[in-house]
What does this fold into?
Amino acid sequence: MLFSRRNLLLSGTAAAGLTAVGVPVSVLPDAAPGFQLLSGGEIELVTAIGEAFFPEGNVFGVSAADVDLPALVDALMAEELDPIVQPVFRYLLRVVDAGTLASRGAGFAALSLADRRAVLENWSDNAIFPRRLAYDALKSVLGMAFFNAAAVTDHVGWSPTCHGAAS
Amino acid sequence: MRGGFFGFEGYPAHMELEADVCVIGSGAGGSATAAALAERGLRVIVLEEGRRWAPEQFQGRAPWAFKHLYAGRGTRATRGNAIIPLPGGRGVGGSTLINSAICFRTPAPVLAEWRGTFGCHHLTDEWMGGCFDRIWRTIGVTVNPPEVQRNNNHIFRQGAEALGLDGAWMARSAPGCQGCGTCQQGCSTGGKLSVDRTFLAEAVLTGLVAVHADCRVVGVETQGDRVLAVTGRTVRPQDYADEGTFRVRARAFVSSAGPVGSPRFLMANGLSDGPVGQNLHVHPTAGVAARFDQEIVAWQGVTQGYYVDCWRDGYLLQTFSMPPDQYFLSFPLVGDEMLAFMRDLRHYASAGVVVHDEDSVGAVTESSLVYDLGDLDRTRILAGLRASARVFFAAGAKEVVPGAHGVGIIRSVEEIETVLHDNIPAHDIALYASHPMGTCRMGNDPARSVVDPDGRVWGWQNLHVADASVFPTSLGVNPQVTVMALGLTIGREVQLA
It folds into this structure.
C-alpha cells in the first residue's frame, strides 16, 4: 500500500474535530535549529511516537533511537512528501499529544513507553475510524522514514540497487 | 514544428506550438495514439506534465519514486466505504514507468460485451488481434526465464501446482529483466520497456512527433464545436512548481491524461455534458504474506511473475513484491507482531488478488475520488485472499499474514475460512488499486457514454480521449495492453477539423 494523503487529510479532519471540542491547535512554530520543518516540540513528539513504534531492544533489532528518527522524518517531510501533508502532519502530532489528556491524564509524550505502545495499539484497531486513520498516518510517515534508513535497510538486507538474479 | 524530445531546460518564458494533432499525456494510451497518428503522416505534439527520465536516474527507494514518478507524489487515494490508495504514473511513459510490465490481451468476453452492449464496433477480434501482435513486437513482450523469476514467484507456482490450479508465468514487457524487484520505483537497468522507450521513441524517429515534457495543460480555446488550442504552464523540475506558459494550436486533440486526468480535463473546461467521471472502476486488490522456514527474499526476482487464473470467479491471483517500507505500511499487524514480521521479512513470500470489479460504484470529481466497494467485489477479494493463503500453505508456509485489520495471523490451512470469513467489512481490508478505468466511457449512446466508438467526445468535432478512461466496463486483467490497443485504434480514427 502506498502512503495515503487521504489518511492524512482525514486525520486532519479529526484534528479539526478535536479542535472544535477544545483541543488547542495553534499557529505552527518555526523549525528547530538543524531541522527544515519540525519544531522542538514536534521533535519531542516524533521521538515519543517513534520510540513506541520501534522501542530500544525490540525484536526487529533496530530502534528509532539507533537511526535518529526525528531527523529522518524531517527530511522525508521537507524533501520528498507532498507539501500539502506537512501542516496536516504537524497538526496531527498536536492532536496525538492532546488525545491522551482525558483518557490517561497526560499528553502522549509524557506517558510511559508501555502506555504509549498501548495507546498506539488501541488506535490501530479502534472502532472510531478517524483514530485508526491517525494511526495509519503516523505509521506511514514514521515507517517510511525508518525503513529507508541505511541502518535498517542493511539490517533487512535490502538495498535500492538491483537485487536481481545475479545477487 | 520539429520532432524530438524536449524538456523544461530548453523552454522560453512562453511557447507557441502548432501541429496537426496534440496529444495530452504520454502514457500507454497517448504513446500508442501518437505512433498511430505518425503512421498517418500527421505531425503530433505530445504534452506531458512530468519529466522525461533515463533508466539510470531511477533510485530504487519508494519515497524518491513517489516524489518524482507518481501522480500526487504517491498520495492519490479514493474515499468511500474504504480508503484505497490509487497510484498512477507521472512522467514521459506515464504508468508504464512504474507498473510491473504485465501483459494480458483483452479477454474475449469483455470485447464481446463492449461491441454488443456499447457499440464499440471497431474492436473486432481481428482488429484487436492485429493490435496485440504489434504491441507484443513493439514492447518486447516475453516470459522471463525461471532463473530471473526467483523464489517469490517459484514458491507460489509450487503451491498452485500442488493444488492443481490454472497458473502460469505472466508475459511481461520486460525482455531484459534482471529481476531487480524495483519495477514500481522505475526500472534502473532498462530491462523493462516502458512506452517512452518503445512506442514514443519509434514515433519520434519518424520526425513527425515532438514530445514536450514538463508541460501541464490547464485550459482550452474553443470555437463552436471545435477545440482550437490548449494552454498551460511549464513545470519547474526542481520543485514541480509552475513557471512559464505555453499554447498549442492543432486540428485535433486527444486527451490521454489517464482515467483521473482526462475526466478532470473535460470537467474543468466544460467539455462534456455526458456522464464524465462516472463509472470509475479500479480492480481492487489485497494481499497476503506467507512465512516459510527457508529464506524467500521476495524483492529478489521478477516483481510480479506468476498468476493463477480465476477470471471466471471474478479475480486473478498474482505474486507481488515490494521494498521493506511498503511491507510495513501494507500489512496491518501492530506492536511486537509487526516488528517480528519485519525481522523475518526475508522469509516471507507475498501474493494477492486482483478483482474484476462489477458491483462497486466509483467516480472522479473535480476535487476527489470516490469508490464504494460493492458486496460482490468485497467477497471476491476475500475469496482471493483465502485462495492465496491456501496456495502458500500448499507450498509449505508456516503462517500467513492477511492484509486485513484485526484478524491476526493464520497458522494452519484449517484456520483460513474462519479467519478470512465473508463478513469482514470493506474498511477492514487493506485495499490497494492501480488500475483506474472507465471514467470517460466509450459507447454509442450519448446519454450513457462520454466518447463515441471512435473515441471522440460527444458534441465535439475534433476532441478525443484515448486512455483507460474510455473502457466501457471493468476489464478484469492488467490493462496496459488494452490501453495501447485502444490508443492504436483511436489514433487511426482521429478526425481533423
Chain B has a mean pLDDT of 97.
